[in-house]
């Protein structure tokens, strides 16, 4: 336990009196241990397992139970979870809404979203209600999840909404024949993915700047940044306009590093540095003249890179603007 040694040092240096040190030590020994986050983790895992298990049961016993019974059970469970979430809903606010620890409304909301996906998949698989309109299959949950995420101030549901929206964009820009031909390397898909990532990043910046659910900004930015970076790297590797994609990745890296320093965020700083390093390394060594380089050149480059990474990690607090 680190507290006794720390308290002893503070007491010996006269920073705190012995009476206060004894009270602090007694409090640390007798205070209750919180398992709040452990319970939340188990509940989230349980919801995911529930959705998975429900889908498996439906798939394996669809002929035994009957479609009407299964469909009714899913609808009742979905509406029940949604009813519970709305019953204990809190007033809407563009600021972060404090969650109450005594209610399970956020878990009920997440369960309702999982059940909605199960219901939609079941209806499409069994009754083909959407036909070949696959965009509608992803558009409906995107709209519903965005509404629920903002109404209930739920970042997990927002992540599901962004995922559904990204799927809807992908389905609409990729003709069915591309999926049938298994051709996923078209320029259109790559460029639209970059635009999607930049659009999500823009929404995140606006959300933070205008203070409209500012705590949602991180979710938008982390999704948008990764989508844009991965799509940019795919374009750099696959297509001939490598300089254009390199400049794009350089701009994204600069923006990520700038934002990481501004917000003192390790995640965005590391993303900007690592994605930028991968893009720069590939652009340098993919050229024909690099194919004939001696192995020593490659060794020296990666050794220098390793030293730079170590230096970066040692000084990351100073780089990001945090005090020692």
Task: Outline the structure in words.
The structure is a single chain. With 324 residues, the protein is an all-alpha fold. The protein folds into three domains: 1-31, no CATH class; 32-161, no CATH class; 174-324, no CATH class. 79% of the residues lie in helices and 0% in strands. The chain is built from 16 helices and no strands. Helix 1 (2-12) packs antiparallel against helix 2. The radius of gyration is 26 Å and the shape is flat. The relative contact order is 0.05. The mean pLDDT is 81.
Mind sketching the topology for me?
Layout: H1 2-12, H2 18-30, H3 36-60, H4 62-65, H5 67-87, H6 105-127, H7 134-152, H8 155-173, H9 176-181, H10 187-209, H11 217-238, H12 242-263, H13 266-285, H14 288-291, H15 295-314, H16 316-320
Helix pairs in contact: 1-2, 3-6, 5-6, 6-7, 7-8, 8-10, 10-11, 11-12, 11-13, 12-13
Give the structure's gist in a few sentences:
The chain is an all-alpha fold and 324 residues long.
Series of secondary-structure elements, N-terminal to C-terminal: HHHHHHHHHHHHHHHH
What percent of the residues sit in helical stretches (DSSP H or I)? over 70%
Uncertain spans, ≥5 residues at pLDDT below 50? Answer: none
**What is the beta-strand fraction?**
under 5%
Q: Please give the number of β-strands.
A: 0
The pLDDT mean sits at 81
Largest sheet: none
Radius of gyration: 26 Å
Distance between the termini: 23 Å
The shape, in one word, is flat
Tell me the domain tally. Answer: 3
How many helices in DSSP terms? 16
């Amino acid at each position: 336990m680190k507290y006794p040694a720390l308290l002893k040092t503070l007491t010996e240096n006269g920073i705190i009196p012995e009476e206060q040190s004894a009270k602090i030590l007694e409090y640390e020994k007798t205070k209750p241990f919180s398992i709040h986050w452990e319970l939340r983790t188990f509940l989230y895992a349980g919801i995911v397992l529930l959705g998975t298990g429900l889908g498996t049961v439906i798939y394996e016993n669809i002929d035994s139970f009957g479609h009407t019974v299964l469909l009714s059970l899913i609808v009742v469970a979905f509406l029940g979870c949604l009813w519970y979430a709305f019953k204990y809903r809190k007033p809407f606010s563009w600021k972060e809404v404090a969650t109450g620890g005594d209610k399970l409304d956020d878990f009920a909301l997440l369960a309702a979203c999982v059940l909605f996906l199960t219901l939609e998949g079941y209806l499409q698989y069994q009754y083909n209600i959407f036909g070949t309109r696959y965009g509608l299959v992803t558009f409906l949950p995107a709209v519903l999840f965005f509404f629920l995420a903002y109404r209930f101030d739920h970042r997990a549901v927002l992540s599901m909404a962004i995922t559904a929206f990204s799927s809807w964009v992908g389905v609409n820009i990729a003709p069915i024949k591309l999926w049938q031909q298994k051709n996923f390397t078209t320029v259109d898909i790559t460029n639209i993915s970059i635009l999607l990532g930049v659009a999500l990043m823009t929404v995140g910046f606006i959300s933070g700047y205008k203070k409209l659910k500012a705590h949602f900004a991180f979710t938008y930015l982390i999704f948008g940044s990764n989508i844009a970076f991965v799509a940019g790297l795919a374009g750099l590797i696959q297509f001939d306009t490598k300089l254009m994609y390199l400049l794009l990745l350089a701009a994204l890296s600069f923006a990520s590093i700038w934002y990481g320093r501004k917000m003192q965020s390790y995640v965005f700083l590391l993303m900007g540095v690592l994605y930028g390093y991968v893009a720069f390394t590939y652009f340098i060594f993919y050229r024909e003249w690099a194919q004939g380089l001696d192995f020593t050149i490659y060794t020296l480059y990666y050794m220098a890179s390793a030293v730079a990474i170590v230096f970066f990690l040692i000084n990351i607090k100073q780089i990001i603007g945090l005090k020692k």
